[in-house]
Amino acid sequence: MISWQEYEAAFALEKFFPDTNSRFLTHKSFTKQLKSFSDEFNITAIGKSEKGKSIHKIAFGYGPKKVLIWSQMHGNESTGTFAILDLLQLLHQNFFLKKQIEDHFTVVMIPMVNPDGADAFERRNASGIDINRDALAKQAPETRVLMKQIEIFEPHIAFNLHDQRSIFSVGENIQPATISFCIPSFDTARAIDATRVLGMALVGKIWQSFPEDFKTKTGRYTDEFYPTAFGDNIQKTGINCVLFEAGAHFNDPKRIAARTLFGFSILQAFKVLLNQQNPSTELYQSIPENEQKMRDIIVKQVKLNSRGRKLKVDLIFKLMEEVKGSTFYRYLKLDDIGDFQFLNALQVVDGKGAEFNIQEMYLGKTFEFQEFQQTFWEGVIV
Fold it and tell me: Which among 49, 106, 159, 329 could bridge 53 via Cys, Cβ 3.0 to 4.6 Å?
């Protein structure tokens, strides 16, 4: 289908969408970019959000295998939507790749399921409902739109694209989980039936195609059964559901690495599905399970003056992202103080024994990036 080297070479932001070099994508900007593909793909509005914003479906192909892909059920999890836009642009540029997929698959993509959440950069919809925990109650209009499309399309396999927190890690040497996968359970026993075996085998093959550096940064997300979640309930129906989780990477706060891995993984999935024989769970089970040993920034070895004592401590800073008005705002918050020698961080800063009074360096204190750079290290990547 396409190698990692070919995809990475094609994946240049200046060739795709320079204005999406961010974590924030508004519904207005998204729909504008979507319209640029209307001559090549069947793009239709399939419903509206709580606030009346359109939810779109992109369809192409006429092959026997039906694949459904959706993204951004959680409004602040945008990496999958960016990856879908990248894929559309790549297929626009590569006629033969697009034709190869169209001949063997019928594909439906539903990016930005939660447009109200996307505009607010918040997890939940405008009524405060977590769409990914609404599969049974179906109270959110966005839930009903997605469920209706699943019922109409009856896919053989579904890809559910999410983002995970930057705390997730893999391996004994504590690497960031830049991408994680999960084949959801359909019961509390986490039984493995033939459908789950096929999904596990697919993920194993995708992982096998990664460059070595990213193999060590791939995690296996928990398959704990969530009775009201989409993936778990879709799995119950016999539809193979694959959860994709975009994670952090060193010096990559905008998650470009995970975005690239998402697009490449979807293309690899098409390749594997063309000729999936003798499925095995072995490769999937060898992907390490996610742990929670990563942090955004750790400043090592600073001194805090507290009640006449000098405490030698490490400081953990968490990257905060939110929308104020219509502006996407990013800053750092002091999230923890203590001894963190058994954790790793996306950026580790030598505090060089800098001294602070506890009144000026306290839990919850926020820093603009420029302020942080002036206080600790001007080289921090923001």
Answer: 49
Beta pairing partners, 55: 47
Query: Can you list the domains of the chain with their CATH numbers?
Result: 4-286 (3.40.630.10), 295-375 (no CATH)
The CA–CA distances, whole Å, from 314 to 11, 348, 358 equal 38, 10, 13
Are the C-beta atoms of 284 and 220 separated by less than 8 Å? yes
The predicted model scores a pTM of: 0.96
In this structure, the strands spanning 327-338 and 294-306 are unpaired
C-alpha 354, offset from chain centre: 36
- Tell me the C-alpha distance between 58 and 30, whole Å: 13
Q: Can you tell me the distance from the alpha carbon of 72 to that of 80, in angstroms, rounded to the nearest whole number?
A: 7
Q: Considering only CA atoms, which of 182, 186, 115 is closest in space to residue 145?
A: 115
Q: If DSSP codes are grouped into helix, strand and coil, which group holds residue 334?
A: strand
The SS3 of residue 146 is: helix
Handedness of CA 48, 90, 198, 174 (dihedral sign): negative
* Residue 287: alpha-carbon gap to chain centroid: 18
Query: What Rg do the C-alpha atoms of the chain give, in angstroms?
Result: 22
CB-CB contact of 302 with 314 (8 Å) = yes
The greatest distance separating any two alpha carbons of the chain, rounded to the nearest whole angstrom, comes to 74
Q: 166: which 2 tokens?
A: 């930057």
**C-alpha distance from residue 132 to each of 135, 197, 209 (Å):** 7, 23, 29
Q: pLDDT (tens digit, 0 to 9) for every residue of the chain, 382 residues total?
A: 778 888 877 765 444 454 555 899 999 999 999 999 999 999 999 999 999 999 999 999 999 999 999 999 999 999 999 999 999 999 998 999 999 999 999 999 999 999 999 999 999 999 999 999 999 999 999 999 999 999 999 999 999 999 999 999 999 999 999 999 999 999 999 999 999 999 999 999 999 999 999 999 999 999 999 999 999 999 999 999 999 999 999 989 899 999 999 999 999 999 999 988 899 999 999 999 999 999 999 999 999 999 889 999 999 999 999 999 889 999 999 999 999 999 999 999 999 999 999 999 999 999 999 999 999 987 777 6
* H runs (alpha helix) in 164-255: 194-208, 212-215, 230-236
Task: Return the bridge partners of 310, or none.
Answer: 305
Distances (CA, A) of 70 to 139, 150, 244, 365: 19, 10, 10, 37
